[in-house]
Amino acid sequence: TRPPERALREWMDRLARFALTKAGLADAIRLVTSAPGGPAKPGPTPVMEAAGALLRACEDAGVVRPGVTSDDFFLAIAGLWQI
């Protein structure tokens, strides 16, 4: 096992690489799910749950301030990915 902060960082790196390989996929999903009678938009539940578990471990270790949510986390890293 790794220290929680290292595990979070490594997971973030892998998530970023995954997102880069899926460039353009969001537009395709949006196009299909917005069509009349199209399928429902898929949810990010597994990724949000993974982020939450890592954040809780970091909070317990005292390396992330208490109360940071998965939503907070993704808002922050989405901004970084735009740079």
From TrEMBL:
Transcriptional regulator SbtR-like C-terminal domain boundaries: 4-79
Pfam families: TetR_C_43
SUPFAM superfamilies registered for this protein in UniProt: Tetracyclin repressor-like, C-terminal domain (SSF48498)
InterPro entries named in the record: Tet_transcr_reg_TetR-rel_C_sf, TetR_SbtR-like_C
Name of the protein this chain belongs to: TetR/AcrR family transcriptional regulator
Organism: Streptomyces sp. SID7499
